[in-house]
Amino acid sequence: MSTSTETESEPAKRRAARAASGAGSLPTAPCSVVWSKGHAYVLEGFRARWVGVDDRGRPQALSGEQLQRRGWSRTRSR
Fold first, then answer.
1. Cut 0.85: pTM above it
2. Is the pLDDT reported for residue 58 higher than 80?
3. Of 8, 18, 16, 13, whose CA–CA distance to 72 is shortest?
4. Local structure of residue 73 (DSSP, 8 states)
């Protein structure tokens, strides 16, 4: 593989890594949905928190900062 091929694929790899890690800003519209670790989280507008369930189905509320640290995306990934 040539050096030019390797450098051309690097931006695509970085874009894919950002998309997978949820890089960027979280949505701000109430009732927005994002995915993190296989679970959906919905933004509660009046409390500015993300609500979903943990691996055992128990309710879980996260701040935007916590969700950023965990990683998130707009689509469900398997």
1. no
2. yes
3. 18
4. B
